[in-house]
Please model this.
Amino acid sequence: MADALPSPATHSNSTLTADLTADLTVEPPRGPVADPTLQRASGRHRVRTRRTRRTRGRRVTPRSQRLGWLPLLPLHLLVVAVCVPDTSTSSAVSLAHVTAADVAAVLVVVAAAWRLLSGDGPALLRSRALLPTLAVLLAVTLSAVFATDQRLAAAGWVRWVEVDVLLPVAAFVLCRTVRATTGVLLTFLAVSLAEGVLGVVQYLTGTGAGYGAEAIRAIGTFGVGNQLAMGNLVADAGLVCLAGALALPVRRHRLVAGALAVFFLLPLLLSLSRGALLSGLVAAVLVLARVGWRVLAGTALAGIAVATVALVAVPSQGAVVVARVETVVSSASSPDQSVADRYGLWSAALRMWSEDPVTGIGVKNFSEHRDSQLGIATSSGADAASDDSYERVQLLSPHEQYLLVLSEQGLLGLLAYLSLVVVAALGPLRRYDGRPSLTSATALALFGVGTQFVVTNFWGDLAGPTAPLQGVVFGLALRMAATPRTPRDPRPGPRRPVEPVDVTGLRVLHVCQPVDAGVAAFVARAAEQQRAAGLDVVVACAPTGWLADRLDALGVERATWPAVRSPLRGVLPEARRLRAVVRAVDPDVVHLHSAKAGLVGRLVVHGSRPTAFQPHAWAFEAATGPVALAVRLWEALALHLTDCLVLVSRAELDRAREAGLPLDVTARRVVRNGLDLRRHGVDDATDARRELGLPDAPTVVCVGRLAHQKGQDRLLAAWPLVRAAVPQARLALVGDGPDADDLRRRVAVGGAELSGVLLPGATDTPRRWYAAADVVVVPSRYEGFAFVPLEAMAARRSLVVHDHPALREALPPGAGAVVDTDDAALLATALVRRLLAPEVRDQEGAVGRAHVVTTRDDLTVLPQLVDAYLAAGASVPAQEVRP
Model:
């Protein structure tokens, strides 16, 4: 007698609820499906409505949202351009000295302006985090208006506005996500790494700047006129890596970041820059103290040990570095000429400020007043030399940023500038919550770099080729400061109040390469449910096959996207076709299913619109050796292009963690597969066997694609043992696939040992085969969360499954056996026991049926997928108001 199932009317009620608790694996309560009103936890995601314009009935996404990463490209170019060698040799006061970084800065500002004009610009510019830049703009403008030399003041005004107003605002506008900020920091690390390696080579080969009688000072590509630039650059890079070593979520990534932090210490020491070394040390101490005093103490001890070993190992090379470090301590009591010059310049700056304490003498006017305020003991300039050049660098500033601002812009300017640097340094800590995550690591990195700027300003100033980079860092920090910390809810936690969210009209594009079996069945059912709930659904798939036929029968809109299973073959034409589909459909969210769609889709979309990726079992599980490593590396990178990762089991999530994937860079949801229980009932075995032409004998059924993953070869290896114990037993391998011919050949040559094995091919009615079975076996080597165990339990059939985490998760206790199917004897024993004991298999079938009916109804899938789309950033389209 079949179990009583929910009637079709149950599926047409008016409410659909999704209980989205803090534990992502807790399933929402089951409920009906017709009403598009979904329930989700308040506070989890802020529901956003997006204004859209319609062109002949089709929604058009703003261009700024479709371009994705392209507007960020000028920021990356600026970071690289900072290190382009400056061919200018003049150290005199210049009204217009343009570097490659300045040209890139113009592109950054243009990109930001374009994004503001084509997006939500006014709302962004109203952020309170940008108030310090407005204060700097007003102070600099006042100082320029009342300057003694208006020509110099105009040039200084342009420079100040570029570095401390336009670039911070532009970076604030362009880097709207943590991933975008992290991308800029990674480019900065790559550039710094190149500079650091070059600096070490310069030291070892004697091709750097002059120090004493040798050209051993590491300066990178910055030239003798900017000897301090490389030191500050590698100090900042070391702080970024230190933050990564302390706060990244993946252990391997932390180790790599720690190794890079240690490496950057070497070019920092070889730069022989006392200011960069001291400011980097202070910033590192503050970063470590923010993480914890125990971490600070342990790192300090480790640093002392490493330094001691290095000095003992290379005493001759370390002598110069030690002597330079010693001058930091002795500069107070016995200052050398460079330190004495700075003291004189600082005194001159204070005297200039006393002349006009409110607005100062005017930006860029310090050099004009310098000679009248300096004493005779101060040098006229500093010597800078390398192995092939010599330059006399004039002392055009006090080499102390705060005194420079005070003298040129007065007290108003100093207060405005302090507000900017303090907010930029401390603001990112709002996003640091002490737990390993990409957000915490990025916030800690910006805190370290901002602190280094604050400290460096005590003996440096706004000059040199790295000044635009400082403006970018200010902008990234202000963006982090503008976004408040989102507290993580404890797991598991209490259920929270829910509020309805109308998602009618949300346009979803499903992209799927498989045209049959489990993935295709999931996509077809998801599209059917979402369409019934009022979502606007399009499925991109091959034009032929089971999936296309099923979608046509359901009336679901379909876009043609033929693709092959091979990960590399056909990628370029498939990418071109999918790009055209995305442009034509213009979805609110793109849902990519399985490995090939995940590869092509993320290359095509690359952040231009919300993207959810559902692997349906990780591709690296199907590979070995270098191929598996390459796939894992790709997935680690591609997660940065994924807004929400949808996993079908807790085992799939755990497998990703074991593989070292950076799961913290994206939202993630566990949405287990379910069944439409109206289509999966209990049928009589005798009737099913008669319809299928099978003898009334003990029958084992294995349903699935005939492929290495599904493990039918393991079943054939155990079958002779089963036949020896149950001579009349039959085995049906139902399905088709790449291994079909090999399996048929193996059965043909197996003779009596493999008698009773049937290969009927693929079927559209697996329900009849489940009904004909006494035992259903799933020997798969790996799975995400297979449908076959659910379908077999729905048919009230006993199960024998391979000992894989996802299959263990799918099978409740008492519904069957979990065995290592690599062991033919164990597999045969489990099958024989159930074939010979009807009471055992009947009891297990009843347990499985009850489990599926109570927990695996696929009505739970729809609200969970909608929650995943909202987590990915999908905007609920604004409803059109009709007169």
In short: The two ends are 57 Å apart (CA to CA). Residues 140 and 160 are 7 Å apart (CA to CA).
